[in-house]
Amino acid sequence: MTLILETESHGGVESGFFGAFTQFARLGEYTFATRHLCELVQYFARNPKLHEAQILSYDLDKFWERQGDHTQELIQMISEAEQSYLPESQKFDLERKLEKEQGEVAVEDDIDLYSEGRRIPIKIADEDHSIILGNYKVSALHFGRMATYLARGGFFGWMNDKKPEFADPTIEAIKSSKRKLYTEIRKELEE
């Protein structure tokens, strides 16, 4: 589910989720834990005097590989579900497994979110009208749209209402913030 994000510095860049793998989001050359980016949005919303922060970015190849693994797991579960010879108890178990995969994907085994990333500086600029994430400058409106896109689970939303715990607080923080950075996106959310 790629989102083309309009930046002021690089034009349209690929961003959003890695397909069905929602644990991580990307912005051009950067990869972030979706949770971390949403928590950063909340932090800026609650601290209007804060103008700088950092976020961890991770090796893009690692997450393309993990996204491939995740997709393969989903395909295998769907394939098993289509086999009509499965007893009812196994079909029910398979449905529960699929539902579990539709929310925030758990980080497993070889991914350490706190030691494997590199710090990317973030600066709110132009009197809260834009934000600079590493090499990318993004208008406040487009940053807000990306944040709500991630918090809502992308184009299709969190399936079966399997929202991660950071989803609603991110939207609520944007809606209740008095910060200029979120003025335009608040108006869109109210419509």
Could you give a quick summary of the protein structure above?
This protein is an alpha+beta fold and 191 residues long. It is built from six helices and eight strands; from the N terminus they run ββββαβααβββααα.
Helix segment tally = 6
Rg over CA atoms: 18 Å
Which stretches are low in confidence, meaning pLDDT under 50 for 5 or more residues running? Answer: none
Q: What does the overall shape look like?
A: globular
Question: Roughly how many Å apart are the termini?
Answer: 24 Å
Strand content: 15-25%
Q: Tell me about the biggest sheet?
A: 4 strands, antiparallel
Domains, number: 1
Q: SSE order, as H and E?
A: EEEEHEHHEEEHHH
Could you say which structural class the secondary elements and strand pairing correspond to?
alpha+beta
